[in-house]
Amino acid sequence: xxxxxxxxxxxxxxxxxxxxxxxxxxxxxxxxxxxxxxxxxxxxxxxxxxxxxxxxxxxxxxxxxxxxxxxxxxxxxxxxxxxxxxxxxxxxxxxxxxxxxxxxxxxxxxxxxxxxxxxxxxxxxxxxxxxxxxxxxxxxxxxxxxxxxxxxxxxxxxxxxxxxx
Length: 165
What we know:
Elements: H1 2-20, H2 29-49, H3 52-56, E1 59-66, E2 73-74, H4 76-87, E3 93-103, E4 109-121, E5 127-140, E6 146-155
Parallel strand pairs: 1-6
Antiparallel strand pairs: 1-2, 3-4, 4-5, 5-6
């Protein structure tokens, strides 16, 4: 009987240890995905408004943006310069649509990808439309917000034929 009592006590203590031990953090990935998706909807509206400061506010301080035909812009000042040049293009209208949001199990990193449409004037002043895709990597900030740390986009249009001589 004493062995049974000792075994019962051991089982109860083991159960209490499990119950009182550190509990895993709740899985907030679905909520984080929703927040990021909604943030990209707003970010696209800011792009249409050509508001450079509000656009750049979506980036972390150490972020890098990789626009086509430009060197990597790292840091908000460099990104502001790149985005400012892009937003100054005559006839520019830019919008993008998120296709996928994936948050890491750790809950501190995420990525999105989607498609963009950009209209601008060509060298002759005639409107032209570019369609392409993007990938953005996010890192959760200390305040719980998500900021882009790497952003890359490029066109789906074929390469232009080289000029003939």
